[in-house]
Specification:
This protein has about 150 residues and is mainly α. It has helices spanning about 1-30, 35, 40-75, 80-90, 110-140.
Length: about 150
């Protein structure tokens, strides 16, 4: 049990670290693009930021799923990558289909993967909202007042 908890905690921390690096990179990109983003036309650029942030989030979530899948495969829990990725994706997104279950000696990892997914979904939602908010605030700050 303690091995599962320790391993699950390490995987959670690894996934959170990847998310942190991803957020840092996204923030850096937004800062570098500030002059362009703050010029007219605003709405199309806001839509572009949303699309880029959404793809960025999907990549970051996919990395988290692969961290879990590669670990499960490495532990020998699954004999091929496809079921390891499938299980990790279903657990990470908290779908919980239940068609593939972990062996008894590793079953706590399923709950930890789900908790990791919930945490990541909350963090990426915050990223999307904050990215859009920051860009819109920058756009409004440079807008010239109408007389």
């Amino acid at each position: 049990m303690f091995v599962q908890l320790a391993l699950g905690t390490a995987l959670l921390l690894a996934s959170i670290f990847v998310a942190g690096l991803s957020f840092w990179a996204m923030e850096g990109m937004t800062v570098r693009m500030h002059p362009w983003l703050s010029r007219e036309p605003h709405r199309i650029k806001l839509m572009l930021v949303l699309c880029v942030a959404a793809v960025w989030v999907m990549v970051q979530m996919t990395v988290g799923v692969w961290i879990w899948a590669l670990t499960l495969r490495g532990l020998g829990v699954f004999d091929a990558m496809e079921p390891a990725v499938y299980f990790s994706l279903v657990a990470f997104t908290t779908l919980g289909f239940g068609d593939i279950l972990l062996p008894m000696e590793w079953r706590l990892l399923g709950g930890l993967a789900a908790a990791n997914g919930l945490l990541n979904i909350g963090m990426v939602t915050a990223l999307l909202v904050e990215a859009l908010r920051q860009v819109r605030l920058q756009q409004l700050a440079v807008r010239k007042p109408k007389h």
